């Protein structure tokens, strides 16, 4: 429930975590109430791309950077058709944006899209709390939604949890569409949309790929109806343990031996398709400054992440799967979480992070070239 108001900055707001911790501040964006999973993002730039990333569906994002909104909102950096975060938490919102590309303030954009937020709280203390206790359910309340703390806590504890949530179909396209190749068309890729970001098909189009973006409900027959040279599975929200349909479709692709590339949720889908389990991380990886090592080259990359789940696969051995041998190709240097998988006997690989990297960094852009190489090898 939200109500639009231009006086939000003066309206008291309350953030209530499911373990009873309470933070008090001022409304930011729309006034009302919202619920979701409290997570934090460590990126110091790119807040517009974060807000419009479908992988943040049903999450309340806490920004660790203290100043947010400095460059306003433009019409070019949207990663999807709308803001997907359930709520937004900032410490010091910009009073006046400064950018030649800005068309409106972030506060105005949040308000226009009905996104309830809170400002003026100690986001450092909140982040430390989430690091110690883990991501958890949260509610933000402002205006007439503010009640006694105990009543608000009870409502937060009634909200659904992220574990067990099947969300990809809620954010994916309902109709297929095509992103044409830029310049000469070299390949056709069928991209299964589980919450795809707009920059991903653009990165492929830059490499001469015509991308057919398909709904999350697409079947194996739908995928091969476009006569693809390769198949891509996108990022997306929710618990991969619920994604039985995408797993089945991916297994069909693996059986045919078509070059395959997965990002984020797509990495978890590949893990499940190969027979590995998945699990929920304590507080996840979110931001644009996560160190990952590509074990195939030894190179360390600074990468963009947004995931609360991970693949449970052995780090230091080759695994036998129904589709041949598989190994962990990338690992997070902060905590040894699996950040990539590759098959050794079929043309398939995936990474847990975001090589399309809007708003950066661009260390992992080579992965799209690796996908092109697989399709060239298959064609040859």
Computed over alpha carbons, the radius of gyration is 21 Å
Task: Show unreliable segments.
Answer: none
Q: Class by helix and strand content?
A: alpha/beta
Mean pLDDT: 95
Number of helices: 10
Shape: globular
- Give the N-to-C terminal Cα separation: 56 Å
Provide tags for this entry.
single chain; 380 residues; alpha/beta; eleven-stranded mixed β-sheet; seven-stranded mixed beta barrel; 10 helices; 21 strands; globular
Walk me through this protein's architecture.
- The chain has 380 residues and is an alpha/beta fold.
- Helices cover 23% and strands 33% of the residues.
- It is built from 10 helices and 21 strands.
- It has helices at residues 47-51, 106-112, 123-133, 149-158, 168-171, 199-205, 220-225, 244-256, 265-273, 366-379; strands at 2-3, 12-17, 22-29, 31-41, 59-63, 67-68, 87-89, 92-93, 116-119, 136-142, 177-179, 187-192, 209-214, 230-233, 260-263, 277-294, 300-312, 319-321, 324-332, 338-343, 348-351.
- Helix 8 crosses helix 9 (265-273).
- The longest helix has 14 residues, at 366-379.
């Amino acid at each position: 429930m939200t109500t639009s108001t231009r006086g939000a900055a003066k309206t008291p707001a309350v953030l209530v975590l499911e373990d009873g911790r309470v933070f008090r501040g001022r409304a930011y964006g729309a006034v009302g109430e919202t619920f979701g999973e409290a997570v934090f993002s460590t990126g110091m730039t790119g807040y517009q791309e974060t807000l419009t990333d479908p992988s943040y569906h049903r999450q309340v994002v806490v920004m660790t950077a203290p100043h947010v909104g400095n460059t306003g909102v433009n019409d070019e950096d949207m990663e999807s058709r709308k803001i997907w975060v359930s709520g937004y938490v900032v410490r010091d919102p910009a009073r006046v944006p400064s950018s030649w590309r800005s068309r409106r303030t972030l506060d105005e954009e949040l308000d226009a899209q009905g996104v309830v937020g809170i400002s003026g709280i100690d986001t450092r203390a909140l982040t430390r709390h989430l690091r110690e206790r883990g991501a958890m359910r949260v509610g933000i309340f402002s205006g007439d939604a503010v009640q006694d703390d105990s009543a608000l806590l009870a409502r937060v504890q009634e909200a659904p949890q992220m574990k067990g949530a099947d969300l990809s179909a809620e954010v994916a396209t309902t109709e297929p569409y095509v992103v044409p190749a830029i310049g000469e068309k070299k390949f056709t890729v069928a991209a299964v949309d589980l919450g795809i970001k707009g920059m991903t098909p653009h990165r492929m189009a830059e490499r001469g790929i015509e991308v057919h973006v398909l709904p999350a409900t697409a079947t194996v027959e739908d995928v091969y109806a476009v006569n693809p040279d390769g198949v891509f599975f996108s990022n997306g929200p929710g618990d991969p343990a619920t994604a039985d349909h995408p797993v089945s479709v991916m297994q069909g692709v693996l059986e045919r031996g078509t070059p395959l590339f997965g990002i984020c949720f797509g990495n978890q889908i590949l893990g499940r398709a190969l027979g590995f389990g998945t699990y929920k991380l304590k507080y996840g990886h979110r931001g644009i400054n996560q160190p990952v090592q590509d074990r195939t080259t030894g190179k360390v990359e600074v990468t963009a992440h947004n995931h609360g789940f991970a693949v449970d696969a052995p780090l230091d051995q080759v695994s036998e799967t129904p589709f041949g041998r598989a190994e962990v190709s990338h690992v997070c240097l902060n905590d040894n979480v699996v950040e990539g998988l590759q098959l050794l006997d079929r043309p398939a690989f995936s990474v847990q992070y975001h090589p399309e990297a809007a708003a950066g960094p661009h260390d992992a852009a080579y992965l799209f070239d690796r996908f092109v190489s697989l399709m060239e090898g298959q064609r040859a």
